[in-house]
Amino acid sequence: DGNTINYSTYEMLAAHMWRCLCKARGLPEDQETRLYIPTDGRSRLQPPLPPGYLGNVIFSTIPKALAGDLVSKPTWYAANQIHNAIARMDNEYLRSALDYLQLQPDLNALVRGAHTFGCPNVGINSWAKFPIYDADFGWGRPIFMRPGWILNEGLSIIIPSSTNDGGLYLAMALPPHHMKLFQEFLYDI
């Protein structure tokens, strides 16, 4: 089918989710849609920051595509959009973003929220590699963990399975009519 790249689990799952959301929302073919991906800049900046650095070094990777292309082309098309956008997040790009932020008179104007992730856009965050089930507060290993609430429509979080079987859970905020369709499309592989 023309694809020669090995994509990560995140890239393929996010690609499938992005496509399914376009279908569930009934987006027109010519509608531009954006995928907001929180990206850790610690290892991408040069020199790299230590893994335990607690400052805010989260940048937004934002691939864009037309809904019609995402829906009509193979899943790897969406995965490639994601892969290429993440690959662009290098030291030069991130330092340029930092320079841009320093020039802004009001950083509050750049804060993301409901206006960012709502239709036709989506945010997909992954907690899949976080050691969330290693947290033991004296009662033993957690049975299950998830966010208590997802504030904005279109925002989702990928969560690792509690059984260490490689499975993943999705937590997502969507209107009920979109969620029903999204679930149908998600499992129709």
UniProtKB/TrEMBL annotation:
Pfam families: Transferase. InterPro entries: CAT-like_dom_sf, Plant_Fungal_Acyltransferase. GO terms for molecular function: acyltransferase activity, transferring groups other than amino-acyl groups. Keywords: Acyltransferase, Transferase. Belongs to the plant acyltransferase family. This is Hydroxcinnamoyl-CoA quinate/shikimate hydroxycinnamoyltransferase. It comes from Phaseolus vulgaris (Kidney bean).
